[in-house]
Specification:
The complex is a heterodimer of chains A (about 375) and B (about 900).
Chain A (H helix, E strand, L loop, with lengths): L1 H20 L1 H11 L1 H9 L9 E5 L4 H8 L10 E2 L5 H6 L5 E5 L3 H6 L5 E7 L3 H24 L9 E8 L6 H31 L2 H6 L5 H31 L8 H25 L3 H17 L12 H7 L3 H14 L4 H32 L2
Parallel strand pairs in A: 1-2, 1-3
Antiparallel strand pairs in A: 3-4
Chain B lengths: L6 E10 L2 E11 L4 E5 L6 H9 L6 E6 L2 E2 L3 H7 L3 E4 L13 H11 L4 H15 L14 H13 L5 E5 L7 H17 L4 E6 L2 H4 L4 E6 L2 E6 L1 H8 L4 H8 L2 H4 L19 E10 L2 E11 L4 E6 L5 H9 L6 E6 L2 E2 L5 H6 E4 L11 H11 L4 H14 L15 H13 L5 E5 L7 H18 L2 E6 L2 H4 L4 E6 L2 E6 L1 H8 L4 H13 L27 H17 L1 H21 L7 E7 L4 H11 L4 E3 L6 H9 L5 E5 L3 H7 L3 E8 L3 H26 L9 E7 L6 H32 L3 H5 L4 H30 L8 H25 L3 H19 L11 H8 L2 H14 L4 H25 L6
Parallel strand pairs in B: 3-8, 3-9, 6-7, 7-8, 13-18, 13-19, 16-17, 17-18, 21-22, 21-23
Antiparallel strand pairs in B: 1-2, 1-4, 4-5, 9-10, 11-12, 11-14, 14-15, 19-20, 23-24
Helix pairs in contact in B: 3-4, 3-5, 3-20, 4-5, 8-9, 13-14, 13-15, 18-19, 20-28, 21-26, 21-28, 26-28, 26-29, 26-30, 26-32, 28-29, 28-33, 29-30, 29-32, 29-33, 30-31, 32-33
The chains are: A alpha/beta (about 375), B alpha/beta (about 900).
Chain lengths: ~375, ~900
């Protein structure tokens, strides 16, 4: 066993050297974990941000202009004042997500207590922005109207108030979320690509059969690729978390980084094994690439890192329990945002370890078989 | 043509990095004859030929071919149709999935020949090369000799004035080799004006050339006819003559090779094969092969490419379990799991299995370690190998950049680094120069005679066969004859081993040397001056057709291209949902009054929330929030009910999990909504009058009244998938040609960069459009998302869009050198840009900074708008024409960039 581990160690060093000599891949890894994360997390905003809005002001009163003036950044873009006839075109072309229509004599009717209605047209195709924005608009408009009215009418205070606290991310800054989720996506994608490609490269260059006539087993060959490529990604994750997420993006990390890194390691064992698995199934690089997309994309999108898991269909949720990324995402969120410790995340870690072990063994069996079958 | 010669080089220099390939070459190559370039590998023969052909960029000096400067693009374009270039390597310029006919036909189209003309020429060429019976066989399934003949057909399709053949016979069996040269002779007889420039590793072949250029180390050693060179050096054969011509320090140490007689050792045979048979499907690669090799014996396997030599060797090494029969090594049956036997065997595979990206030293050290040489012995042993194999000058060079011959020396060094008792060598010397080959054999003989190492070697060099103790002649999976070389020659009454082998082959295949077929037939008269056009649709379609055939014949690629997107849209359409529901919440109810329970019930009754077991205290709240078990927690203060009844202000604590900001935001919205609801109900019950708000808002959710994200997602996933798959297929398609070497056809034929790129793009646009319709059908029939706009408009938009996405693939392919790099780069770029910056979840206008810029300059943004607009908003061309225009603008920009970045010559 010691001998085999030593072999795996040496072959792994070879993989690292090979990677070092492939500058394009290196640059890609560096970019994915630096600039890629930075742009992805700063540009996207999951919360309401710069929502495009327009107002049709048919009232032209003090109140209507106060309402118009109450929409500003960062939630909304400064509203465009448009006419009734421009509403449909603006929504159709996707220029505006929201269009408010303040009816004539709005101010007068408000003061008369007639409860006038402001029509809000929402492009519901932009699901998340539409929903959150609608809530904001309601609060903003009613707030403005209320304040305006207050001078004339005395208000009874609402009997129950809510004291909301958003835990772990009080301002709901999306870069906190985006940056870490992007790291997770990169972990999955790169580790699968790197190991799969390392295997195919050996096959295409005929070095695989060369290895097989040496006193080496499938276990060593596979382990070598798994540990070396996992190490590369692991180090990249660590550096990225410290410099890009911690320093540049200034995301406060609540929990223990060592715990997260340990989880990453288990995740990498699973994804690199997956890379080998795909590598054995495909005959050449183009095939590998296509298969990779079919595997990696669902892993990234359905694991709860992009959209909440609970809103997916039951079947999808259950199937995704067998994907290591699902558990990794939940572990990462628990540890990094909520400051959870091992006492909380051990089930995720255990699930990941079990999946990783299963993947490794399955890949090893597949790899053995594909070697035996190769002519 | 002027009388001065077909090509002239003056002061030509060429370097690859620090390596000098050609050093101040001055050369006049005469026309209308067969000129041979001879010399070891890595001396610059191939580089020189590539320069003459105009395939490689001139770095230094001037090269004139067919009376003009090859540095001038205009001249290159003018003479290109008059030159044919066949690169080194078996079938390097051929397309393996295309049939024999399709390959030749493709070249005919590139040279703008009409279909009648092509039909006549192809029939004639295939007939004279004997390929007619194999007309419909894929090129990949031809033997090495047939591939070379096919390569020649492709080169000759346009009646070139100058034919450039780079090592056309390396690795080809003797019968095919002989046929190949006869074919060239016949061609020349028919077209006496044609000049042929050929390089060869076989010195014996050089004798048939009219004029020789002997090269070494990037310089010309001597030129002249073979007789000239022999006379000048006072030698009788060209091998010896070449060695004489070498500078003294290189010649040193070379002496004629003598094989000492073998001392027979005891202990039984080293290798035994009994009825070894290997079948792949219904093809028998090896058919009942028997032999026995004694210890210390040098046993040779002679045969053409694809005759089963390699398969036999693989069975001996345990790489392939035989279909029937058995193989014994040192008396033990070969077992793939037996690591100890492997340690006693050294193996050198045909593909010089080295790690190209590692240096010579790294390769040696790695193998020494993998064979577990004691740590202290590794360095001395590596040094010994470096000295013995003359690798000293290359120790730190990358193996991939080494000339063929040196790479093979390294490969052998690697195979013997652990001092094996037996060596299995699969064609170890093809392409190695005579001095190195003799040196190599000296080492083999040394190993055999002094160390008693058993050597099993396969080769197609006859003179190497003569050095073996015993040989087997193999053909089509069967051993034709076995015995000592002398005995075999005597048996056939032949003059040489080569003749004996050819006799055996002819007997086995029943194929006698074919008389010059149709020699007298008139060559189709060629229209004076080939028509040259800056842009030819014919060439473009030739590439498109070829690519299409290739894609269609690669079932895996095709399935993925078509079905991949369908599978993904199912996963994504069902999986990605921006609907936030089933949020888990728990309550820390410190009051436990009817009022508090009513409040909780109000929330639990909502479809958005799922009630979890109640919380017992603040610590549990923290714990369960941390574990991500709860999305919301409520804390109802003590005396909630009492205070409410008394009309005193009460505050309910709400904790929301902010880990996923978008979900937190939505959750808060829900909680506030339900809270307001509760208040109204409470007010109604207690006071009997509703506290009227001063105004109301009427929310109209347009296009998607049910507010279901499937309607939003499915039309958005279509652009997403039409970005990835086409871009990646495309990028890989171009880089594949670079990797496999068929990109040479871009360099060496009149096809322009634009024709090449557009031609390759067309099939992928076609495939992508098919998958587009699959996606639309799924959207409408499976997801029930109605297409409210016009399908024609949407198709038009999709057509433009896949043109841009394949264009992105093209652009990526111009940077990338390897398929893997192309793949990864394309995946990263398209995935990031499409998922995050093109408005999939948020409109581009809400983005900021770099993301906004990327979104604006990414075509998916516009197609997304169109797709959503047509699917759900029933828009027409009039409303979305701006998006159309924006997308259209990408097409010329991407194409132009790709054209500029693609090189028409090799650097």
């Amino acid at each position: 066993m010691k001998v085999r581990l030593l072999n795996a160690w040496r072959l792994g060093m070879k993989e690292l050297l090979s990677l070092w000599n492939d500058k394009v891949l290196l640059i890609m890894i560096v970019w994915a974990f630096s600039g890629g994360i930075y742009t992805a997390s700063t540009a996207t905003s999951q919360e309401l941000h710069n929502a495009p809005i327009a107002i049709v002001d048919e009232d032209q009163s003090v109140l209507s202009s106060r309402i118009a003036g109450s929409f500003y950044g960062p939630y909304f873009k400064p509203p465009d004042m448009i006419t009734e006839s421009q509403v449909d075109a603006g929504l159709d072309a996707g220029i505006y997500t929201f269009v408010l229509n303040i009816p004539p004599d709005f101010e007068r009717d408000v003061l008369a207590g007639q409860q006038p209605v402001i029509q809000v047209n929402i492009d519901a195709m932009r699901v998340s922005q539409a929903f959150i924005g609608a809530g904001y608009i309601q609060n903003i408009v009613l707030g403005e109207v209320g304040e305006f009215v207050q001078h004339r009418r005395s208000e009874a205070a609402a009997p129950i108030t809510l004291a909301p606290t958003v835990m772990f991310n009080p301002n709901m800054t999306s870069s906190w979320f985006g940056s870490v989720m992007e790291i997770i996506n990169n972990v999955t994608m790169l580790s699968v690509i790197l190991t799969g490609a390392a295997l195919i490269r050996e096959r295409e260059h005929g070095t695989l059969e060369h290895l097989l006539v040496m006193p080496l087993g499938a276990f060593e060959i596979m382990l070598a690729k798994v540990w070396s490529m996992a190490l590369v990604v692991w180090i990249a994750v660590g550096l990225s978390l410290y410099f890009v997420v911690g320093r540049v993006l200034d995301v406060p990390i609540a929990g223990s980084i060592p715990l997260f890194m340990a989880g990453t390691l288990v995740q990498l064992l699973a994804t690199t094994s997956l890379g080998i698995f795909i590598g054995t199934l495909s005959r050449n690089m183009p095939q590998l690439g296509l298969m990779m997309i079919l595997v990696v994309l669902p892993l990234e999108l359905l694991s709860g890192g992009m959209t909440p898991r609970e809103s997916m269909p039951e079947a999808v949720q259950n199937i995704m329990l067998f994907a290591p990324t699902t558990h990794f995402v939940s572990l990462a969120q628990a540890v990094l945002y909520r400051g959870a410790g091992l006492d909380v995340v051990w089930p995720s870690l255990l699930a990941m370890a079990a999946i990783a072990a299963a993947f490794f063994v399955a890949s090893l069996l597949m790899f053995r078989r594909s070697i035996a079958a190769q002519g | 043509m002027t009388g001065t010669g077909v090509a002239r080089l003056a002061g030509v220099g060429l370097r690859y990095g620090d390596t000098v390939a050609l050093d101040a070459i001055d050369l006049d190559i005469p026309s209308a004859c067969m000129v041979g370039l001879i010399g070891p590998d890595g001396v610059g023969k191939s580089s020189l030929m590539a320069l003459v052909a105009g395939v490689r960029v001139i770095q230094q000096g001037t090269v004139e071919t067919l009376g003009g400067d090859m540095g001038s693009r205009a001249h290159r374009e003018a003479v290109c149709p008059r030159i044919a270039y066949m690169p080194q390597g078996l079938g390097k310029n051929l397309y393996m999935t295309l049939s024999v006919f399709e390959n030749v036909d493709f070249f005919g189209r590139l040279f703008g020949q009409s279909s009648d003309e092509r039909a006549t020429r192809i029939a004639e060429l295939l007939d004279s090369t004997g390929l007619t019976p194999f007309r419909d066989r894929p090129a990949g399934k031809l033997s090495g000799g047939m591939k070379q003949k096919l390569g020649l057909c492709c080169a000759l399709i346009h009646d070139p004035d100058l034919l450039i053949l780079d090592e056309p016979t390396t690795g080809v069996d003797p019968l095919s080799r002989r046929q190949f040269w006869q074919l060239i002779d016949r061609m020349r007889a028919r077209r006496p004006g044609m000049s042929v420039l050929v390089s060869s590793a076989y010195m014996a072949e050089a004798e048939r050339f009219d004029w020789l250029v002997a090269m070494d180390d990037g310089r010309v050693l001597a030129t002249g006819s073979p007789a000239d060179l022999l006379a000048r050096t006072g030698t009788t054969d060209l091998d010896a003559a070449f060695i004489e011509l070498l500078p003294p320090d290189k010649r040193r140490g070379h002496a004629a090779l003598v094989v000492p007689p073998r001392v027979v050792q005891g202990d039984g045979p080293a290798i035994v094969a009994e009825g070894l048979t290997m079948q792949f499907g219904d093809f028998t690669a090896v058919d009942h092969v028997d032999f026995e090799i004694g210890r210390g014996e040098i046993f040779g396997f002679l045969g053409s490419n694809g005759c089963g030599k390699t398969t036999t060797m693989k069975m001996l090494t345990g790489l392939l379990p035989p279909t029937s029969g058995r193989a014994l090594l040192f008396g033990h049956e070969v077992d793939a799991g037996d690591l100890d036997t492997r340690r006693r065997v050294g193996f050198m595979t045909q593909g010089f299995s080295l790690y190209g990206e590692l240096s010579v030293r790294q390769n040696l050290v790695l193998h020494a370690q993998l064979f577990h040489l004691p740590a202290a012995d590794v360095a001395p042993r590596v040094q010994e190998m470096v000295d013995r194999f003359g690798l000293a000058g290359y120790v730190d060079a990358q193996a991939a950049g080494l000339p063929l011959g040196i790479r093979q020396r390294l490969s052998l060094a690697v195979a013997v680094i652990h001092k094996p008792e037996m060596l299995i060598l699969d064609e170890p010397t093809s392409g190695v120069d005579p001095v190195a080959r003799d040196g190599f054999w000296r080492l083999l003989i040394d190993l055999s005679r002094k160390d008693g190492v058993t050597i099993f070697v396969s080769t197609h060099f006859m003179n190497e066969g003569e050095r073996c103790d015993r040989i087997s002649l193999m053909h089509a999976g069967r051993v034709l004859a076995s015995g000592s070389p002398a005995a075999l020659i005597a048996e056939r009454h032949a003059a040489s081993l080569e003749d004996a082998f050819i006799a055996c082959l002819e007997e086995a295949t029943g194929e006698a040397d074919r008389p010059a077929a149709a020699a007298g037939e008139a060559v189709a008269a060629r229209a004076a001056g080939t028509e040259r056009r800056a842009f030819s649709l014919m060439r473009l379609f030739a590439y498109a057709r070829r690519e299409w055939l290739e894609v269609v014949r690669d079932p895996v690629r095709l399935t993925f291209a078509l079905l991949g997107s369908v599978i993904l849209v199912l996963i994504l359409g069902y999986g990605i949902s921006m609907d936030v529901e089933d949020l888990k919440f728990a309550v820390l109810d410190r009051d436990q009054s009817p009022e508090s329970r009513a409040y909780v019930e109000n929330m639990a009754g909502s479809r958005y929330f799922l009630e979890q077991p109640p919380l017992a205290g603040s610590a549990e709240l923290d714990q369960r929030m941390k574990a991500g078990e709860l999305s919301v927690a409520l804390e109802i203060p003590p005396d909630f009910g009492r205070d409410l009844r008394r009309g005193q202000a009460v505050e309910i604590g709400v904790w929301v999990d902010g880990a996923m900001p978008f979900r937190a935001e939505t959750t808060l919205g829900y909680v506030q909504g339900l809270h307001a609801d509760f208040l109204q109900q409470a007010a109604r019950r207690q006071v009997g009058a509703v506290q009227e708000a001063p105004a109301r808002l009427d929310m109209r959710y347009r296009y998607n009244q049910d507010f279901k994200s499937v309607y939003a997602m499915v039309p958005a996933v279509i652009p997403l998938l039409l970005t990835f798959i086409p871009a990646i297929l495309m990028a890989v398609g171009v880089v594949r040609e670079k990797e496999l070497g068929s990109i040479t056809n871009l360099y060496a034929t009149p096809v322009t960069r634009l024709e090449f790129l557009l031609g390759k793009q067309l099939p992928y646009i076609g495939v992508s459009m098919i998958s587009f319709y699959g996606l639309v059908a799924l959207a409408v029939y499976v997801f029930g998302v109605p297409l409210k706009g016009s399908l024609v408009t949407l198709s038009l938009a999709a057509l433009i869009f896949v043109t841009t996405t394949t264009g992105i693939g093209l652009l990526m392919s111009s940077f990338a050198r390897t398929q893997i790099a192309a793949l990864a780069a394309t995946a990263v770029v398209t995935m990031l840009a499409t998922v995050t910056f093109s408005g999939l979840t948020h409109p581009v206008s809400s983005l900021e900074g770099a993301g906004r810029t990327i979104g604006t300059f990414f075509p998916a943004t516009y197609f997304l708008n169109i797709s959503r607009g047509l699917f759900t908003k029933a828009l027409g061309l009039r409303e979305v024409y701006m998006d159309f225009l924006a997308m259209l603008a990408f097409v010329p920009v991407l194409t132009l960039l790709s054209v500029l970045l693609l090189k028409k010559q090799e650097r």
